[in-house]
Amino acid sequence: MANEVNEASLREQLVEQYKYVEGIGLNELSSGNLSVRFGDNMLISPSGATSENITTDTVVEVSLEGEWEGDRKPSSEWRMHAAIYLKHEKTEAVVHTHSDYCVALACQLKPLPGFHYLVGSFGGNDVPCVPYSTFGTQSLGDDAAEALTDRTACLLGNHGMIARGRNLKATVSLAHRLEIMCRQYVLTSQLKEPELLTDKQWEEFFDRAQKVSYGRFI
After folding, report:
1. Which residue out of 7, 61, 69, 77 is catalytically annotated?
2. Where exactly are the structural domains of the chain?
3. CA gyration radius, the chain
4. pLDDT in tens, the chain (218 residues)
5. pTM of the predicted model, to two decimals?
6. According to CATH, what is the number of the domain 2-211?
7. Is 77 a catalytic residue?
């Protein structure tokens, strides 16, 4: 019974956050996908999901090897989610978006540099960008999982972004934060390339962040 209650709650959270992500413009139409760890498996948004058609019943339970049952197929990016869960045991949720400014940087195949101290909230002095791979492939999943070894988010070349976290709401916040930071980087870059924080400034930031438990989850 407890497991059934937990599953119902996770499905409700996933539907709620999926609609929220689309509502704030991080995804449009059926782009992007969300998942949560569920025991040895995961619950993930279905293929073709939108805020209008996703329900608790259409959320798909998938093993980390890709086994699933039912009428709805899991998101085509299930391999990327699975690769992250397999590599990062503390990860409880994964959020993938095609948000505008993340896509803009990802299509330049460039990381988000350490131009602002809040870049450090993702675990380091930049947010890396992995090379392009065809959507839904194992190579994309492996590259993303590796890039997230010491980061909570990364950009996906010519594609979008992905984040991992301790729960779904917190991970959605990471995805939102990354879109904000990419937007602000694009804006300041229109003036000139911004000054980056120095190694000493980053050292001071992370020392301070650790003391106040400031927004990091690795």
Report:
1. 77
2. 2-211
3. 17
4. 456 659 999 999 999 999 999 999 999 998 999 999 999 999 999 999 999 999 999 999 999 999 999 889 999 999 999 999 999 999 999 999 999 999 999 999 999 999 999 999 999 999 999 999 999 999 999 999 999 999 999 999 999 999 999 999 999 999 999 999 999 999 999 999 999 999 999 999 999 988 876 655 44
5. 0.95
6. 3.40.225.10
7. yes
